[in-house]
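Agenda item 2: uridine-5'-diphosphate complex prediction
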Amino acid sequence: TDIAFVLGTRPEIIKLAPVIQACERRGIEYVIVHTGQHYSDSLDSVFFDQLDLPDPDYDLAVGSGSHGEQTAEMLVGVERALEETAPEVVLVQGDTNSVLAGALAASKMDTELGHVEAGLRSFDREMPEETNRVLADHVADYHFPPTDRSKGYLLREGISAFRITVTGNTVVDAVERNLDIAREKSTVVADLDLDDSRFFLLTAHRAENVDDEERFRGLLEGAQRAGDAHDADVVYPMHPRSRSRVEEFGIDLPPRVRAVEPLEYLDFLQAAASADLILTDSGGVQEEACVLGVPCVTMRDNTERPETVDAGANRLSSCDPGRIERSVAAMLGASDWENPFGDGDAAERILEALPVEAPSTEVPQ
Ligand code: UD1
Ligand code: UDP
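Presented output:
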């Protein structure tokens, strides 16, 4: 096997799909090792279907658990899968516990590791994602930062320039490939009765926000005030983590905020592209908003995607209701910026930089 893709969550499936499809086009052999960190259909299998991905070769079915337990179980399972398949290179994407487990397993087995979306930094070590991405970068052999800025962070941490290829973000490849299909096929805007109204799209699932009752209530109140101020519905496809916190804290959603099930990728793209503004604490959604030309307010204290803020596409509001309302007022209507995340050929650049080649199809003389 040339490449083992280790993945486990919604954003990894979406952002590795372009690389997997590029392997198909080039005839590069690969296996998919799914950790099972995400397992609900709406966070997992629906993306394999919509993105035309083959079923995983391994499903480790690790599921939810404490960070230590979850990561440890994945490490055991990924090691076994790598022993059986002996890939030339392991590829991981992003900053989840699945990434950490894949990176550690590859490094312990002395298999080369490539990190897609390397070099992102929030400089907030309280986020589990920050630790995961720093550790993955420091055991990786091939680094694929999306921008020069993330390359700069890697260099500053002592990572050699010859290991680094700036590729752009594969999120652009995915948007370019799927946006027209979404426009054609998705009926989400009509289904949610949003045709004739102004609406904001809200996603919030990050542990430091939704596991903290005060912050969670604050961001919902901010969304409510912004919706009221601009006569906009706020549609909230709710991650299961957030859904269980709403129940646990006994939160009644404010009237402007309409919770719906997590959306399929094409529906999400179509809803995002059609929204007047996006409120989020997601990493990938900050990028997509920027790529789609939709203004974004990020309900966090920091971001590992500062390129979006510098471009004028995004503003940080924390979870303070007043700041959210003011940030929405400031961002609404903005749309004129340059996409800092590349031209949609990130997947091809990644494969070019790896020591893998398709078998020769030339007929011997
Ligand atoms: C994980 C990542 C986060 C990423 C997010 C993408 C880590 C530390 N966190 O967060 O960086 O932004 O994925 O969505 O890796 N649950 C389900 N069904 C599922 C998966 C989870 O119901 O298929 C529920 C369970 O109650 C679980 C909770 O969501 O306890 C949290 O799941 P977990 O995978 O630990 O973290 P995420 O919040 O999904
Ligand atoms: N997404 C989706 N349906 C939803 C919400 C998000 O398809 O209801 C997609 C979105 O297009 C983006 C990705 O999920 O590509 C972001 O994942 P998430 O916010 O879960 O994780 P993060 O990027 O914060 O790690």
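Discussion summary: The chain has a mean pLDDT of 97.
Owner for follow-up: CH.
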